[in-house]
């Protein structure tokens, strides 16, 4: 599709700020709303959706005859010790009672949802590259509105509407997120900060489903809330007409020159590089860990709670934690931009570019550590472990996407950014289908299943560590920027030097 955007288009500072604020609000509301699944599941369980699976005799035969786990034993002991605080015999029967068939159905919906979130990412990347921002945003806004409408239709009598609702919310949310990531070019000198700020807002959108818990307590029907959200999400369709048709024009001259240098390198050079493989591994493993954590969160807090009140508290704390991610997402970008500006003081051009690539080391490493600690908390069925995991999630969840996106924009040519972002998202989401069999495995071998994820997380640390090998990074920059020998060792004008010496 041809680009019909004026090549000389310039945006005023006011319009750039307005467009950026539109991106911030859209990311905060809808970019990753589907990842607030744990608090939505709590509401759906209270409504009794899929509760009929717990009453099916065949399901009871297959699922209820199991030996008590370590978690059950510990939790029963803790609840007995707290029997003066919680009325266990009554409250455990309402909303907190563990039902394996129901949990597995919700886990299946969430697995399909997160896979649909980024599997079409490669198509969205090429859509952005060829069709542009406006077409992509209108498509995403339409799917978001339809998704909320279907979510409002889902009831205890017709729960099958949950599947199309969550799939449409995932597809629309991903298109919104990938479109908004382009807004980082509105401020080229602070691109990493802008991208991580937008990604932090995207992480906070997981708290959107907290609205359902509050409205349920206020007696407002879930369908009415969904209709309101459908109307709000449709506004992104109309706002698309004040945004450039195809892409955000970059007016910073230095960025234009840099992009021009980076463009000649073919896509396959970036895609099949060592950095690409290591980053794809890092991105997939950490995304799998976060999704497994979110998928297991409701079951985990159910096994760790003594009452529906306590489980509801942990569910709401999950939402509050997602809201606070907006303050932690940009930190990685601010630090990266600081390191890039510091690298600009390096006199040697090649060394400067290498230091720019290495600027992502600490953000990647810190994100890895927090994500590993968060996931390790799943091995402990204590309130303290839940609180620690939520604190770690404040840093880990927004930074995985934010730091990864900023790293792609720095490490690889600018012309490859949209397509690489889509390819990584698609490959990662296809592999995320593994989270459902992993969830089933964890139902029977809890500690072994989660220990495997921790082991793979340890392997993923190779991604930030390889950035410290300067010779490897020098070679990567030479290939990325298609540098020639004269670029690395400029030929001095010996004739002019001789004249100076004669004088």
Sum up the overall morphology in one term: globular
Class by SSE composition: mainly alpha
Report the portion of residues in β strands.
under 5%
Q: Tell me the span between the first and last alpha carbons.
A: 62 Å
Radius of gyration: 25 Å
How is the quaternary structure best described?
Answer: single chain
Which series of helices and strands comes N to C?
A: HHHHHHHHHHHHHHHHHHHHHHHHHHHH
Low-confidence stretches: 57-68, 83-96, 253-262, 491-501
Number of helices: 28
Largest sheet geometry: none
Q: Can you count the beta strands? A: 0
Please tell me the overall pLDDT: 81
Helix content: over 70%
Secondary-structure topology with pairs:
Blueprint lengths: L12 H19 L5 H11 L9 H7 L6 H12 L6 H9 L3 H19 L2 H10 L2 H21 L8 H19 L10 H14 L5 H8 L4 H12 L1 H5 L13 H10 L4 H5 L2 H31 L3 H17 L4 H15 L5 H10 L2 H16 L6 H29 L5 H15 L3 H10 L1 H14 L2 H5 L3 H11 L4 H4 L5 H9 L1
Helix pairs in contact: 1-9, 1-10, 2-11, 2-16, 6-9, 6-16, 6-22, 6-23, 7-9, 7-22, 8-9, 8-12, 10-18, 10-21, 16-17, 16-20, 16-21, 16-22, 16-24, 17-21, 18-19, 18-21, 19-26, 20-21, 20-24, 23-24
Commentary on this structure:
- This protein has 28 helices and no strands.
- The longest helix has 31 residues, at 274-304.
- The protein has 503 residues and is an all-alpha fold.
- The chain has helices spanning 13-31, 37-47, 57-63, 70-81, 88-96, 100-118, 121-130, 133-153, 162-180, 191-204, 210-217, 222-233, 235-239, 253-262, 267-271, 274-304, 308-324, 329-343, 349-358, 361-376, 383-411, 417-431, 435-444, 446-459, 462-466, 470-480, 485-488, 494-502.
- Helix 6 runs antiparallel to helix 23 and helix 16 packs antiparallel against helix 21.
């Amino acid at each position: 599709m041809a680009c019909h955007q004026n090549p000389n288009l310039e945006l005023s500072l006011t319009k750039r700020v307005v467009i950026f604020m539109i991106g911030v609000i859209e990311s905060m509301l809808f970019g990753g709303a589907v990842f607030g699944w744990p608090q939505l599941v709590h509401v759906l369980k209270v409504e009794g959706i899929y509760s009929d699976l717990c009453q099916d005799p065949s399901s009871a035969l297959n699922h209820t005859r199991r030996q008590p786990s370590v978690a059950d034993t510990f939790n029963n002991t803790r609840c007995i010790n707290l029997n003066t605080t919680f009325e266990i015999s009554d409250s455990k029967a309402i909303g907190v009672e563990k039902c394996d068939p129901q949990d597995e159905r919700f886990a299946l919906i969430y697995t399909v949802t997160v896979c649909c979130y980024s599997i079409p990412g490669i198509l969205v990347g090429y859509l952005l590259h060829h069709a542009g921002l406006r077409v992509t945003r209108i498509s995403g806004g339409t799917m978001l509105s339809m998704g909320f409408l279907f979510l409002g239709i889902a009831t205890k009598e017709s729960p099958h509407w949950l599947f199309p609702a969550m799939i449409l919310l995932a597809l629309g949310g991903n298109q919104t997120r990938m479109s908004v990531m382009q807004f980082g070019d509105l401020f080229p000198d602070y691109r990493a900060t802008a991208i991580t700020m937008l990604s932090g807002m995207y992480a906070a959108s997981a708290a959107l489903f907290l609205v359902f818990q509050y409205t349920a307590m206020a007696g407002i029907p879930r369908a009415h809330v969904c209709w309101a959200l459908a109307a709000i999400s449709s506004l992104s369709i109309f706002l698309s007409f004040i945004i450039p048709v195809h892409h955000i024009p970059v007016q910073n001259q230095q960025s234009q020159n840099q992009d021009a240098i980076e463009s000649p390198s073919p896509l396959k050079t970036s895609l099949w590089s060592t950095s690409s493989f290591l980053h794809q591994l890092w991105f997939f493993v950490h995304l799998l860990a976060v999704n497994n954590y979110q998928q297991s969160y409701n079951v985990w807090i159910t096994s760790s709670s003594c009452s529906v009140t306590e489980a509801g508290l942990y569910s709401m704390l999950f939402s509050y934690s997602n809201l606070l991610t907006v303050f932690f997402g940009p930190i990685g970008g601010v630090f990266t931009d600081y390191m890039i500006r510091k690298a600009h003081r390096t006199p040697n051009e090649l060394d400067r570019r290498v230091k720019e690539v290495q600027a992502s080391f600490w953000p990647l490493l810190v994100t890895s550590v927090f994500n590993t600690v968060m996931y390790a908390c799943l091995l402990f069925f204590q309130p303290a472990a839940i609180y620690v995991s939520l604190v770690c999630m404040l840093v880990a969840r927004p930074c995985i996407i934010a730091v990864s996106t900023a790293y792609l924009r720095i490490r690889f040519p600018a012309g490859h950014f949209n397509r690489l972002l889509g390819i990584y998202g698609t490959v990662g989401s296809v592999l995320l289908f593994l989270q459902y069999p992993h969830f089933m495995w964890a139902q029977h071998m809890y500690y072994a299943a989660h220990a495997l994820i921790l082991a793979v997380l340890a392997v993923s640390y190779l991604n930030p560590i390889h950035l410290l090998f300067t010779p490897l990074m020098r070679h990567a920059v030479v290939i990325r920027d298609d540098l020639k020998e004269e670029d690395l060792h400029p030929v001095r004008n010996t004739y002019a030097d001789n004249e100076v010496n004669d004088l």
